[in-house]
Amino acid sequence: MKKIFFSVIIVLILLVIVAGVVVGLNLDRIVKKSVEIYGPQIVKVPIGLDAVHIALLTGSARIEGLVVGNPEGYKTPHAMTVGKISVGVNPASLLSDKIVVRSIKVESPEITFEGGFGGNNLTAIKNNVSGTAQKGGPVVTNSVGQPKPAKKLEVDEFVITGAKVSGTLALFGKDITVKNLPLPPIHLTNLGKGSNGITATDLTKQVVDEITITTIQALGKYASNLGSGAVNLGSTNVNRIKQGIGNLFHK
Hints:
251 residues, alpha+beta, ten-stranded mixed β-sheet, 4 helices, 10 strands, single chain
């Protein structure tokens, strides 16, 4: 009986190891597919990824070739591209109700701006995400298509560095070309702290809000400086820009 018992234990251990290997081999594909399915439901624009690489033992992941499309009505093919995103996760939290993400680091995103300060592709995406958040986010389903509770998140640090914006700024009847305008770093901390955590939709909303605000403020400063450059907007219009940017975000 002891031999049978130990044999059963060994077989179960082997099955757990095999299952772990199978999950590990397919986790990259599963996460990539999930992002491409649920991402567009949150932002209401196409989302594409080149690859996802996950190391379960170290709790690290790398996302490559993220492309965020534009809403309908805009001419440019995408709103943002990111070559690399590094993610650090607490592995012990993956099986809990709340996944603890130690850090998300977005490196050198390229943002494409199209429109004016009153209406543009970034604010359109921002409004899309806000609308999704108000509805509670997309419905997450299990393998048989039944709804299931969405995982909550805690993100200790979210950092965006090396961002640049290019595109066309429509301002007072003029189309101003912007090329590789650097943006200041974005640093968000303690998102979803506490027992309730934060949903993927609410996390996306906070990040998109911050990207939009930072981009438009940088463009506002850039436009304000055009009075002494090749495009003279005049002092009255420059003051209107500054006032408009302040009113837009109440900052």
